[in-house]
Amino acid sequence: MRIRIAAALSAVAATALLLSGCAGAGSPSASPSPSASSSCLLNAKPGKTSDAVKVEGEGKDLKVTVPSGTDLDKATAAERTVVKKGDGKDIVAGDLVSVQYRIVNAADSAVLDSSARGVDDQLPVLLDPSQQSLFVVALECQPVGSAVVLALPGKLLSQGQGGTQKSIVVYAQSTKKLPTVATGKEVAPVEGMPTVKLAKDGAPEITIPKSDPPTETKIANLKQGDGPTVASGDYVIVQYRGVTWADGKEFDSSWKRGAPTQFQTTGVVTGFKKALEGQKVGSQVLVVIPPAEGYGSQAQSGIPANSTLVFVVDILGTVPSAPAQ
Protein backbone atom coordinates (compact mmCIF):
# COMPACT_ATOMS: atom_id res chain seq x y z
CA MET A 1 0.00 0.00 0.00
CA ARG A 2 1.36 3.43 -0.96
CA ILE A 3 0.60 6.31 1.36
CA ARG A 4 0.30 9.79 -0.10
CA ILE A 5 2.51 12.39 1.54
CA ALA A 6 -0.34 14.01 3.45
CA ALA A 7 -1.79 10.64 4.32
CA ALA A 8 1.60 9.50 5.50
CA LEU A 9 1.78 12.52 7.71
CA SER A 10 -1.72 11.83 8.97
CA ALA A 11 -0.77 8.22 9.64
CA VAL A 12 1.99 9.45 11.88
CA ALA A 13 0.05 12.43 13.16
CA ALA A 14 0.76 11.13 16.61
CA THR A 15 4.21 12.63 16.20
CA ALA A 16 2.39 15.89 16.73
CA LEU A 17 1.81 14.68 20.27
CA LEU A 18 5.57 14.77 20.67
CA LEU A 19 5.47 18.42 19.81
CA SER A 20 2.29 19.38 21.64
CA GLY A 21 2.90 22.19 24.00
CA CYS A 22 5.98 23.15 21.99
CA ALA A 23 4.23 24.67 19.00
CA GLY A 24 0.66 25.72 18.24
CA ALA A 25 -1.27 26.07 15.04
CA GLY A 26 -3.55 28.82 13.80
CA SER A 27 -7.03 28.26 12.37
CA PRO A 28 -7.45 30.67 9.44
CA SER A 29 -10.65 30.66 7.44
CA ALA A 30 -9.05 29.58 4.16
CA SER A 31 -6.48 27.02 5.24
CA PRO A 32 -4.42 25.62 8.09
CA SER A 33 -1.19 27.28 9.14
CA PRO A 34 2.09 26.39 10.73
CA SER A 35 3.65 28.14 13.66
CA ALA A 36 7.19 29.16 12.92
CA SER A 37 9.75 28.52 15.59
CA SER A 38 13.34 29.55 16.16
CA SER A 39 14.29 26.68 18.47
CA CYS A 40 14.30 22.89 18.58
CA LEU A 41 10.92 21.35 19.39
CA LEU A 42 12.05 17.79 20.07
CA ASN A 43 15.64 17.25 18.89
CA ALA A 44 15.39 13.44 19.02
CA LYS A 45 18.52 11.44 19.92
CA PRO A 46 20.12 8.35 18.29
CA GLY A 47 18.94 4.87 19.29
CA LYS A 48 19.51 1.18 18.59
CA THR A 49 17.24 1.05 15.53
CA SER A 50 18.13 4.39 13.95
CA ASP A 51 21.83 3.54 14.26
CA ALA A 52 21.33 0.12 12.61
CA VAL A 53 19.35 1.20 9.52
CA LYS A 54 21.24 0.83 6.21
CA VAL A 55 20.91 3.45 3.48
CA GLU A 56 22.22 2.52 0.03
CA GLY A 57 22.15 4.08 -3.44
CA GLU A 58 21.19 7.53 -4.63
CA GLY A 59 18.27 9.30 -6.25
CA LYS A 60 15.45 7.03 -7.34
CA ASP A 61 17.65 4.01 -6.57
CA LEU A 62 17.98 4.95 -2.90
CA LYS A 63 17.10 2.02 -0.63
CA VAL A 64 16.44 1.99 3.12
CA THR A 65 16.76 -1.32 4.95
CA VAL A 66 15.89 -2.05 8.57
CA PRO A 67 18.01 -5.09 9.62
CA SER A 68 16.08 -8.16 10.74
CA GLY A 69 16.08 -8.63 14.48
CA THR A 70 15.74 -4.90 15.11
CA ASP A 71 12.73 -4.62 17.39
CA LEU A 72 11.57 -1.02 17.17
CA ASP A 73 8.23 -2.02 18.70
CA LYS A 74 9.94 -2.22 22.10
CA ALA A 75 11.26 1.33 21.93
CA THR A 76 9.40 4.06 23.80
CA ALA A 77 10.81 7.18 22.14
CA ALA A 78 11.64 8.54 18.72
CA GLU A 79 15.21 7.82 17.64
CA ARG A 80 17.19 9.98 15.21
CA THR A 81 20.65 9.29 13.82
CA VAL A 82 22.44 11.82 11.64
CA VAL A 83 24.14 9.86 8.85
CA LYS A 84 25.47 12.92 7.05
CA LYS A 85 26.04 16.41 8.44
CA GLY A 86 25.24 19.27 6.09
CA ASP A 87 26.98 22.61 5.89
CA GLY A 88 24.02 24.95 5.47
CA LYS A 89 21.95 26.89 7.98
CA ASP A 90 20.06 24.98 10.66
CA ILE A 91 16.50 24.01 9.79
CA VAL A 92 13.66 24.99 12.15
CA ALA A 93 9.87 24.65 12.17
CA GLY A 94 8.27 26.95 9.60
CA ASP A 95 11.05 26.52 7.03
CA LEU A 96 10.35 25.41 3.47
CA VAL A 97 12.97 22.95 2.22
CA SER A 98 13.55 20.54 -0.64
CA VAL A 99 13.77 16.98 0.69
CA GLN A 100 14.61 13.50 -0.58
CA TYR A 101 12.91 10.91 1.61
CA ARG A 102 11.74 7.35 2.06
CA ILE A 103 9.23 6.14 4.65
CA VAL A 104 9.39 2.38 5.24
CA ASN A 105 7.68 -0.21 7.40
CA ALA A 106 10.13 -1.10 10.18
CA ALA A 107 9.05 -4.76 10.10
CA ASP A 108 9.95 -5.53 6.46
CA SER A 109 11.42 -2.30 4.95
CA ALA A 110 8.49 -2.04 2.53
CA VAL A 111 8.25 1.50 1.13
CA LEU A 112 5.15 3.33 2.36
CA ASP A 113 5.88 6.67 0.72
CA SER A 114 8.77 8.43 -1.00
CA SER A 115 9.84 11.58 -2.81
CA ALA A 116 10.50 9.57 -5.98
CA ARG A 117 7.58 11.23 -7.78
CA GLY A 118 9.20 14.66 -7.37
CA VAL A 119 11.69 16.46 -9.60
CA ASP A 120 15.12 14.83 -9.16
CA ASP A 121 13.59 12.59 -6.48
CA GLN A 122 12.89 15.58 -4.26
CA LEU A 123 9.74 17.28 -3.00
CA PRO A 124 9.18 20.59 -1.24
CA VAL A 125 8.37 20.12 2.43
CA LEU A 126 6.90 22.80 4.69
CA LEU A 127 7.99 22.08 8.25
CA ASP A 128 4.60 22.72 9.81
CA PRO A 129 4.33 21.18 13.30
CA SER A 130 0.55 20.85 12.97
CA GLN A 131 0.58 18.98 9.63
CA GLN A 132 4.10 17.77 8.87
CA SER A 133 5.35 16.91 12.32
CA LEU A 134 7.14 13.82 11.00
CA PHE A 135 9.54 15.95 8.97
CA VAL A 136 9.89 18.50 11.76
CA VAL A 137 11.07 15.70 14.05
CA ALA A 138 13.39 14.33 11.34
CA LEU A 139 15.04 17.53 10.11
CA GLU A 140 14.81 20.21 12.80
CA CYS A 141 18.00 21.66 14.26
CA GLN A 142 20.19 20.08 11.58
CA PRO A 143 21.97 22.10 8.89
CA VAL A 144 20.73 22.03 5.30
CA GLY A 145 22.36 19.14 3.46
CA SER A 146 22.04 16.78 6.42
CA ALA A 147 20.70 13.25 6.01
CA VAL A 148 19.00 11.54 8.94
CA VAL A 149 17.33 8.27 9.88
CA LEU A 150 14.28 8.65 12.11
CA ALA A 151 12.78 5.59 13.84
CA LEU A 152 9.27 5.91 15.27
CA PRO A 153 7.89 3.01 17.38
CA GLY A 154 4.29 1.96 16.79
CA LYS A 155 3.34 2.34 20.45
CA LEU A 156 4.40 5.99 20.27
CA LEU A 157 2.41 6.57 17.07
CA SER A 158 -0.64 4.91 18.60
CA GLN A 159 -0.87 7.26 21.56
CA GLY A 160 -4.18 9.11 21.41
CA GLN A 161 -4.93 7.68 17.96
CA GLY A 162 -6.84 4.51 18.80
CA GLY A 163 -5.91 1.10 17.41
CA THR A 164 -2.37 -0.03 16.71
CA GLN A 165 0.07 1.78 14.44
CA LYS A 166 2.98 0.08 12.73
CA SER A 167 6.51 1.16 13.59
CA ILE A 168 8.11 3.13 10.77
CA VAL A 169 11.54 4.34 9.74
CA VAL A 170 12.14 7.55 7.79
CA TYR A 171 15.20 8.53 5.80
CA ALA A 172 15.24 12.24 4.95
CA GLN A 173 17.86 14.50 3.45
CA SER A 174 17.35 18.23 3.06
CA THR A 175 19.04 19.69 -0.01
CA LYS A 176 18.22 23.39 0.09
CA LYS A 177 15.98 25.98 1.66
CA LEU A 178 13.34 27.22 -0.75
CA PRO A 179 12.14 30.82 -1.17
CA THR A 180 9.05 31.89 0.75
CA VAL A 181 8.05 34.52 -1.83
CA ALA A 182 7.14 34.13 -5.49
CA THR A 183 10.24 34.45 -7.67
CA GLY A 184 8.68 34.49 -11.13
CA LYS A 185 8.95 37.15 -13.82
CA GLU A 186 6.75 40.20 -13.23
CA VAL A 187 3.65 40.47 -15.41
CA ALA A 188 1.87 43.69 -16.40
CA PRO A 189 -1.24 44.38 -14.28
CA VAL A 190 -4.71 43.76 -15.72
CA GLU A 191 -6.98 46.78 -16.02
CA GLY A 192 -9.96 46.76 -13.68
CA MET A 193 -8.38 44.36 -11.20
CA PRO A 194 -7.26 45.39 -7.69
CA THR A 195 -3.76 46.86 -7.57
CA VAL A 196 -0.99 45.24 -5.55
CA LYS A 197 2.10 46.74 -3.98
CA LEU A 198 4.67 44.52 -2.28
CA ALA A 199 6.41 45.30 1.00
CA LYS A 200 10.15 44.62 1.39
CA ASP A 201 9.40 41.17 2.80
CA GLY A 202 7.08 40.39 -0.12
CA ALA A 203 3.78 40.85 1.72
CA PRO A 204 1.14 42.27 -0.64
CA GLU A 205 -0.81 45.48 -0.03
CA ILE A 206 -4.10 45.27 -1.94
CA THR A 207 -6.09 48.30 -3.14
CA ILE A 208 -9.66 47.71 -4.34
CA PRO A 209 -10.87 49.72 -7.37
CA LYS A 210 -13.86 52.03 -7.01
CA SER A 211 -16.13 49.87 -9.12
CA ASP A 212 -18.61 47.05 -8.74
CA PRO A 213 -17.09 43.62 -8.18
CA PRO A 214 -17.11 41.10 -11.03
CA THR A 215 -19.83 38.46 -11.09
CA GLU A 216 -17.42 35.73 -12.23
CA THR A 217 -14.07 34.65 -10.79
CA LYS A 218 -11.26 36.73 -12.30
CA ILE A 219 -7.63 35.58 -12.24
CA ALA A 220 -4.49 37.50 -13.21
CA ASN A 221 -0.84 36.61 -12.85
CA LEU A 222 1.33 39.25 -11.19
CA LYS A 223 4.43 37.06 -11.55
CA GLN A 224 4.90 34.11 -13.90
CA GLY A 225 6.86 31.21 -12.45
CA ASP A 226 8.61 28.44 -14.34
CA GLY A 227 8.44 25.59 -11.79
CA PRO A 228 6.23 22.49 -11.69
CA THR A 229 2.56 22.92 -12.56
CA VAL A 230 -0.07 22.63 -9.83
CA ALA A 231 -2.47 19.79 -10.64
CA SER A 232 -5.88 19.04 -9.19
CA GLY A 233 -5.48 17.32 -5.83
CA ASP A 234 -1.92 18.53 -5.29
CA TYR A 235 -0.83 19.74 -1.87
CA VAL A 236 0.23 23.28 -2.66
CA ILE A 237 2.49 25.45 -0.48
CA VAL A 238 1.67 29.15 -0.55
CA GLN A 239 1.88 32.56 1.01
CA TYR A 240 -1.34 34.51 0.68
CA ARG A 241 -3.37 37.48 1.84
CA GLY A 242 -7.15 37.78 1.58
CA VAL A 243 -9.33 40.90 1.78
CA THR A 244 -12.99 41.64 1.08
CA TRP A 245 -13.87 43.70 -1.99
CA ALA A 246 -16.45 45.75 -0.10
CA ASP A 247 -14.01 47.46 2.27
CA GLY A 248 -10.54 46.05 1.58
CA LYS A 249 -10.32 44.63 5.09
CA GLU A 250 -7.95 41.70 5.62
CA PHE A 251 -9.63 38.54 6.88
CA ASP A 252 -6.75 36.09 6.52
CA SER A 253 -3.01 36.20 5.90
CA SER A 254 -0.14 33.72 6.08
CA TRP A 255 2.14 36.75 6.19
CA LYS A 256 0.65 37.85 9.49
CA ARG A 257 1.24 34.37 10.93
CA GLY A 258 4.88 34.50 9.86
CA ALA A 259 5.14 31.36 7.70
CA PRO A 260 3.74 29.80 4.51
CA THR A 261 0.92 27.28 4.67
CA GLN A 262 -0.07 24.11 2.80
CA PHE A 263 -3.38 22.59 1.75
CA GLN A 264 -4.90 20.43 -0.95
CA THR A 265 -6.35 22.24 -3.96
CA THR A 266 -9.55 20.25 -3.61
CA GLY A 267 -9.98 21.43 -0.01
CA VAL A 268 -10.61 25.13 -0.65
CA VAL A 269 -13.45 27.18 -2.13
CA THR A 270 -14.01 26.88 -5.88
CA GLY A 271 -12.59 30.27 -6.82
CA PHE A 272 -9.40 29.69 -4.85
CA LYS A 273 -9.06 26.24 -6.45
CA LYS A 274 -9.33 27.80 -9.91
CA ALA A 275 -6.59 30.27 -9.02
CA LEU A 276 -4.18 27.49 -8.03
CA GLU A 277 -4.64 24.65 -10.50
CA GLY A 278 -2.69 25.05 -13.73
CA GLN A 279 -0.31 27.61 -12.23
CA LYS A 280 3.46 27.10 -12.09
CA VAL A 281 5.50 27.24 -8.91
CA GLY A 282 7.09 30.68 -8.56
CA SER A 283 3.95 32.47 -9.78
CA GLN A 284 2.09 35.17 -7.90
CA VAL A 285 -1.64 35.13 -8.60
CA LEU A 286 -4.33 37.74 -8.02
CA VAL A 287 -7.85 36.34 -7.86
CA VAL A 288 -11.25 37.97 -7.31
CA ILE A 289 -13.89 35.49 -6.15
CA PRO A 290 -17.62 36.30 -6.17
CA PRO A 291 -19.86 34.81 -3.46
CA ALA A 292 -21.04 31.97 -5.71
CA GLU A 293 -17.50 30.54 -5.85
CA GLY A 294 -16.54 31.68 -2.37
CA TYR A 295 -18.53 31.27 0.83
CA GLY A 296 -21.88 32.34 -0.61
CA SER A 297 -24.47 33.36 1.94
CA GLN A 298 -22.55 31.71 4.80
CA ALA A 299 -20.67 34.21 6.96
CA GLN A 300 -17.17 33.20 8.06
CA SER A 301 -14.78 34.60 10.64
CA GLY A 302 -14.02 38.11 9.38
CA ILE A 303 -16.05 37.54 6.19
CA PRO A 304 -19.66 38.83 5.99
CA ALA A 305 -22.21 36.79 4.07
CA ASN A 306 -22.28 37.29 0.29
CA SER A 307 -18.77 38.77 0.21
CA THR A 308 -16.60 39.05 -2.86
CA LEU A 309 -13.10 37.94 -1.88
CA VAL A 310 -9.72 39.11 -3.16
CA PHE A 311 -6.56 37.03 -2.71
CA VAL A 312 -2.93 37.51 -3.66
CA VAL A 313 -1.21 34.10 -3.63
CA ASP A 314 2.49 33.29 -3.94
CA ILE A 315 2.84 29.68 -5.13
CA LEU A 316 5.97 28.27 -3.50
CA GLY A 317 5.74 24.53 -4.06
CA THR A 318 3.43 21.70 -5.03
CA VAL A 319 3.37 18.06 -3.95
CA PRO A 320 1.64 15.63 -6.32
CA SER A 321 -0.77 13.10 -4.86
CA ALA A 322 0.69 9.64 -5.21
CA PRO A 323 -1.48 7.21 -7.15
CA ALA A 324 -3.46 4.79 -5.00
CA GLN A 325 -2.11 1.24 -4.95
Structural class: alpha+beta
Task: Report the CATH topology name of the largest domain.
Answer: Chitinase A, domain 3
First-last Cα distance: 6 Å
Low-pLDDT ranges? 1-38
Shape: elongated
SSE succession = HHHEEEEEEHEHEEEEEEEHEHEE
Give the rounded overall mean pLDDT: 86
Provide key terms for this protein.
single chain, 2 domains, Chitinase A, domain 3, 6-stranded antiparallel beta sheet, elongated, alpha+beta, 325 residues, 7-stranded antiparallel beta sheet, 17 strands
Write the layout of secondary structure elements.
Elements: H1 5-11, H2 15-19, H3 48-52, E1 54-56, E2 63-65, E3 79-84, E4 96-105, E5 111-114, E6 123-126, H4 133-139, E7 147-152, H5 154-158, E8 168-177, E9 185-186, E10 195-198, E11 204-207, E12 218-224, E13 235-244, E14 250-253, H6 254-257, E15 261-264, H7 270-276, E16 284-289, E17 309-319
Antiparallel strand pairs: 1-2, 3-7, 4-5, 4-6, 4-8, 7-8, 9-12, 10-11, 12-16, 13-14, 13-15, 13-17, 16-17
Task: Explain how this protein is built.
The protein is of the alpha+beta class and 325 residues long. The N and C termini lie close together (6 Å). It has 2 domains: 5-177, Roll (Chitinase A, domain 3); 185-319, Chitinase A, domain 3, CATH 3.10.50. The protein is elongated, with a radius of gyration of 21 Å. The chain has helices at residues 5-11, 15-19, 48-52, 133-139, 154-158, 254-257, 270-276, and strands spanning 54-56, 63-65, 79-84, 96-105, 111-114, 123-126, 147-152, 168-177, 185-186, 195-198, 204-207, 218-224, 235-244, 250-253, 261-264, 284-289, 309-319. The strands form 4 sheets. Strands 9, 12, 13, 14, 15, 16 and 17 form a 7-stranded antiparallel β-sheet that branches. 12% of the residues lie in helices and 30% in strands.
